[in-house]
Amino acid sequence: MMNRLYSPLLNPMTEGINLDDYCVATYLIGAEKDEDPIIKAASIGIEQTTGSWTDVEAETDEVRAKYAAKTLSVFEVPDYENFTYMKKDLADRDMRFYVIKIGFPQVNIEDNMPLLFATITGNITSMPYLRLLDIDFPAKFVAKFKGPKFGIAGIRKILGVKDRPLLNNMIKPCTGYTPEVGAKLFYDAAIGGVDIIKDDELISGDRAFNKLEDRVKLNMAAAAKADKIKGETTMYTVNITDEVHKLKDNALRAIKAGANAIMVDAFGIGLSALRSLAEDPDVNVPILAHTCYGGALKTSPYQGVSSNVLFKLLRMCGADIILIECPYGKFDNIQSKYIRSIQICQGKFYNLKTSLPFIGGGVIPGLIPTIMQDTGYDVLLGAGASVHGFPTGPVDGAKALRQAIDACMDGVSLREAAKDHKELEVAVNKWGIYGEENLKNLYAI
Fold first, then answer.
1. Quick one: a GO biological-process term for this protein (predicted)?
2. Catalytic: 172?
3. Least crowded by CB within 10 Å, which of 250, 253, 358, 409?
4. Which of 114, 142, 170 is the last residue of a domain?
5. Parent domain of 84
């Protein structure tokens, strides 16, 4: 009798199922040299849906047909078809790696985000050498998510900026300052030309030294003062991150105090909490999702969850702005992953609005031409220390960044533009230009 884990019931062709009824997960899975990958894949699917490590009485074929996961493909890397090639290649290796696609019935999950994680990652992430590469979502699954309220177009409309990269500043120091000190730093960045100013991820809600409503009122007053002078609108994403039961109250207090945007540490509060805020009609301002802690989920090449999945989920759960670490600055991210993350934010995703990619992690004027070549102009450039650590002060730091943006939009090199703009000249002389110097030497981490 056929091994049930080999049966077409658990191993159909992709063309043999209705993909509208499945969330299809793609995994990288390592196995012992002599391990059967078909049995391994089917066992994972059973473990995460209807069964366990041995048959149970109520897990009938009827139950499996409707509720069990289905193995849709198993490809070895490289994709051996001939035993002679395989034997030669594997002579000195103990492990083999496979890319495996498993379809999980949507009926098991519906639009329950915690249950999505329990199903598609769940217990199996305790296995060594198992990494979730992607999830392909059917349209009717995504239709239950409202996604971003504003997206790129909505944020541009608020700011009145149509056709250039937006500029963000993170207030520095990250924490430990009073609202009065923060408002001065805010004003200097805003008057220099920053479009969006955010709290750091390390200060949020009410701190003993910096209360939420005090921070909002003083910063929004600074924004109003700067806006009158520069003739532009400044958005403030106040960090409301807190225990989940305090989030909505924090959001509403911030909005009542005048905040025109909010921010959360998205993986700290959880995706369901982000979604709850984004889908709440009372939270009527854009939401910036900071992705701190995300590195713990995505960095290992053999474990965890790919950034592809994380950014899809952030967009589905309503993030208007999503932080993506720049590979040319402080962090050593792979460029192709960074580019794909931007595409996930900007590209068509059924009927969801776009999310604004927020590029951070050591952004200086000398990086802007390279970033724009990667991203186009539908992006938010996040500069912290290059504003507040600028040699002649944060006003000039912000001006240097805007001058770099304008030069790129006009097709002028930074070296050429620096001849007519003293702030950009200072920045280029101090920190250099990507491609001319090794900018990694600027950063201590």
1. carbon fixation
2. yes
3. 409
4. 142
5. 4-142
Query: Number of folded domains in the chain?
Result: 2
pLDDT of residue 329: 84
Token representation of residue 328: 């040319």
- The sign of the dihedral angle between the CA atoms of 408, 412, 415, 418 is negative
- Backbone phi and psi for residue 166, each to the nearest 5 degrees, phi listed first: -85, 155
Cβ count near 300 (within 10 Å):
12
Catalytic residue among 70, 101, 149, 290: 290
pLDDT at 354: 98
CATH code assigned at 360: 3.20.20.110
Identify which of 428, 398, 396 has the alpha carbon closest to the alpha carbon of residue 415: 428
Q: Is the pLDDT of residue 311 over 80?
A: yes
- What is the average pLDDT across 67-87? 93
Residue-by-residue DSSP string for 59-125: --HHHHHHHS-EEEEEEEES----HHHHHHHTTT-SEEEEEEEEEEEHHHHTT-HHHHHHHHTGGGG
The per-residue pLDDT for 445 is 65
* Owner of token pair 């995504």: 142
Residue 277 vs residues 59, 259, 273: alpha-carbon distances, Å: 39, 15, 6
Residue scoring higher pLDDT (123 or 51): 123
Q: Is the pLDDT of residue 64 over 80?
A: yes
Q: What pLDDT digit, counting tens, does each position of 209-238 carry?
A: 999 999 999 999 999 999 999 999 999 999
Residues 280, 273: Cα–Cα separation, whole Å:
11
Q: Which of 56-70, 290-304, 392-406 has the highest mean pLDDT?
A: 392-406
| Same structural domain, 156 and 115 | no
Catalytic residue among 101, 172, 198, 298, which?
172
Which value, to the nearest 10 degrees, does the dihedral of the CA atoms of residues 255, 260, 265, 267 take? 90
Q: How many helices (H) and strands (E) does the chain have?
A: 20, 13
Residues 128, 27, single domain; the answer is yes
DSSP letter for each residue of 2-16: --GGGSTTTS--GGG
